[in-house]
Design a protein that fits this description.
Helix content: 25-40%
Mean pLDDT: 91
Number of strands: 8
Distance between the termini: 39 Å
Strand content: 15-25%
Largest sheet: 4 strands, antiparallel
Shape: elongated
Order of helices and strands: EEHHEHEEEEHHEH
Low-confidence stretches: none
Radius of gyration: 22 Å
Strand order of the largest sheet: 2-3-8-4
């Protein structure tokens, strides 16, 4: 059963659709000051002026949709920003994927800063190695428990409760250009 489980340290973000143009930003900006578009406007200059002056509302008329695959703990932090639309894979209606996030060997795990301002370092490399091993072990154990529950006809929405937050999920994320710039 452990062979069916995938461990990864990757997050996938793919642009699916862009409903955006410089012209839309220009039109939205000009309606607030002129009520109509001026043929004399140089779009690049206006857009630079809007950015420099932090006039963000004209950018809200452009939108982007992304496909994202990431661990659930990343999604929960992401969605706390409340500035966009999400459709996430439902562990209630579908069987979740046997894929779990485990930090890569090059990822520092030791916080050498504070809770409010973390500064990560490699710290004790032996402990980091053991921690990654425990994460893999716990994921395998949780996945077996999840599969056993599904095989026993326990409802998906109940069976998923045994899975840790490092299990991957997928979502479509739609965000306007202003919110995307703030998020990034």
């Amino acid at each position: 059963m452990a062979g069916e489980i995938e461990f990864s340290d990757k997050i996938t973000v793919k642009l699916v659709r862009a409903m955006a143009s410089d012209d839309m930003v220009v039109q939205a900006a000009q309606v607030s000051s002129k009520g109509e578009n001026s043929p004399d406007t140089v779009p690049e200059r206006l857009i630079r002026a809007l950015m420099a002056g932090k006039h963000g509302s004209p950018f809200e008329h452009n939108a982007f949709t992304f496909f994202v695959e990431a661990p659930i703990f990343v999604f929960r932090e992401w969605q706390r920003h409340r500035m966009s639309s999400f459709n996430e894979m439902s562990g209630r209606y579908t069987e979740l994927l046997p894929k779990f996030y485990v930090p890569g060997e090059d990822r520092p795990l030791s916080n050498q800063g504070t809770k409010m301002k973390p500064e990560f370092g490699h710290g004790n490399l032996g402990e980091s190695f053991l921690f990654r091993g425990r994460m893999r072990h716990d994921a395998i154990r949780a996945w077996r428990s999840y599969r056993d529950a599904l095989d026993a006809e326990i409802a998906n929405e109940v069976a998923r409760m045994v899975l840790p937050v490092n299990v991957y999920s997928q979502m479509y994320w739609t965000v306007n250009a202003r919110s995307l710039m703030n998020f990034l």
